[in-house]
């Protein structure tokens, strides 16, 4: 795909990274990763929109596709074709949401391909129908950032407005999941791939937060008020408030977004903050009935990513208390070994740390030394591939999951651009 865009623009940012990097391996890996997503995962369809596969799976996740493309905002003002690519992705994502706001991954065409024959309301466009709050957040974030970076508003179509209204309706419905029609069951696979109680999930009480069936790992929630996903929802509802007010001149919808954002945020403050060893921390999941989990998962949104998502500042006291917990043995998915230490996931084997989590750790670090250490670790544990993997064995970097993983590749690029303070290519 690179030939469809200005090679000069891409080469200029790679040159800038090379000149500023104190470790040659940083720029080598960046160069491979920054090219890889455009070359292997992006397609301009016959409809003129943009379809982005996650990597080694021929389907588009709303979450992954947004994260994969986000670092190209650094060059979006230098190449109108890249701007159109991002506009085209927002266009495709909006079509997907209007097809089914409960689905997390979609096919390029109505070919009826799917990951598994699940008991849920499928259609021919859907690859998988695991309802995850973050799937509805990521496209709004991308659309908002594109507007703020470029001033572009062409992607704020009537369809976008309808999808945004639908997102609000779904979030409000799922504040009281007992009234929802969403069901999901998968048989014969991992227990984390299905919902209990005939596809409804575990009981939960009203909190003001919005219910999520699955985590951004695509694993089912233990307790269905997923705090980091609700944090992200608070942020994108604030974005929608601004979009409705400024772009659509619709004060009623702006107010609706604002009020829902406040309700969810109040739910987080009342139910999502718990006492741990004499300090207030964020729980990962709660059920509104008194149960909660203290942990974090590598996939984003995560608790570690709260400042990255725009929910709170890095120096927020509760966040810092939570961060210390997450980056310690008190987090059941924090692993450390000979070569690596960091956060992994239930989605991959024990003692496998995710580069995505290491990148988020760097993007939320309050000092440059920690970012340098993490960048060095990332390039030293890529098993000589010049790409990022999904998970890496803490004691053997040659043992990893997924040969290459576009989301992880682009998170590395985002971390390096952040460290080098390259917000955009002037």
From TrEMBL:
The keyword Hydrolase is assigned to this record: yes
Question: Per UniProt, what is one Pfam family of this protein?
Answer: Glyco_hydro_125
The secretion signal range is none
A single GO molecular function term of this UniProt record: hydrolase activity
SUPFAM superfamilies associated with the record: Six-hairpin glycosidases
Key words of the record: Hydrolase
Among PANTHER family, the record links this protein to: MEIOTICALLY UP-REGULATED GENE 157 PROTEIN
Name of protein: Glycoside hydrolase family 125 protein
Q: Which organism is it from?
A: Candidatus Enterococcus ikei
């Amino acid at each position: 795909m690179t030939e469809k865009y200005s090679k000069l623009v891409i080469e200029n940012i790679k040159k800038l990274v090379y000149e500023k990097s104190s470790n040659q391996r940083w720029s080598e890996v960046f160069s491979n990763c920054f090219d890889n997503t455009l070359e292997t995962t992006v397609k301009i369809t016959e409809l003129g929109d943009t379809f982005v596969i996650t990597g080694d799976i021929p389907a588009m996740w709303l979450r992954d596709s947004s994260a994969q493309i986000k670092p190209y905002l650094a060059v979006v003002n230098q190449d109108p074709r890249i701007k159109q690519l991002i506009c085209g992705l927002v266009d495709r994502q909006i079509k997907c949401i209007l097809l089914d706001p409960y689905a997390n991954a979609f096919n390029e065409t109505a070919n009826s391909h799917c990951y598994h024959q699940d008991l849920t309301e499928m259609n021919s466009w859907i690859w998988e129908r695991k309802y995850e709050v973050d799937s509805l957040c990521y496209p709004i974030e991308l659309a908002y950032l594109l507007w703020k970076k470029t001033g572009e508003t062409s992607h704020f179509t009537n369809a976008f407005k309808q999808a945004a209204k639908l997102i609000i309706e779904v979030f409000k419905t799922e504040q009281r999941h007992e009234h929802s029609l969403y069901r999901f069951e998968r048989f014969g696979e991992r227990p984390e791939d299905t919902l209990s109680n005939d596809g409804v999930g575990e009981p939960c009480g009203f909190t003001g937060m919005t219910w999520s069936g699955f985590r951004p790992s695509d694993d089912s929630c233990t307790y269905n008020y997923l705090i980091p996903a609700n944090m992200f929802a608070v942020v994108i509802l604030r974005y929608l408030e601004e979009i409705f007010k400024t772009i659509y001149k619709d004060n009623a919808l702006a107010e609706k977004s604002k009020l829902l954002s406040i309700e969810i945020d109040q739910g987080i403050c009342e139910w999502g903050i718990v006492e741990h060893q004499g300090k207030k921390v964020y729980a990962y999941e709660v059920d509104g009935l008194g149960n909660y989990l203290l942990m974090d998962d590598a996939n984003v949104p995560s608790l570690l990513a709260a400042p990255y998502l725009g929910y709170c500042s890095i120096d927020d006291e509760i966040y810092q208390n939570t961060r210390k917990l997450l980056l310690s043995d008190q987090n059941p998915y924090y692993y450390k070994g000979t070569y690596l230490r960091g956060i992994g996931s239930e989605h991959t084997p024990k003692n496998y740390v995710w580069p995505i989590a290491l990148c988020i750790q760097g993007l939320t670090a309050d000092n440059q030394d920690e970012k340098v250490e993490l960048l060095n670790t990332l390039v030293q544990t890529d098993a000589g591939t010049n790409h990022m993997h999904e998970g890496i064995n803490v004691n053997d970097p040659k043992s990893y999951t997924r040969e290459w993983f576009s989301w992880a590749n682009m998170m590395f690029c985002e971390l390096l651009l952040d460290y080098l303070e390259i917000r955009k290519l002037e």
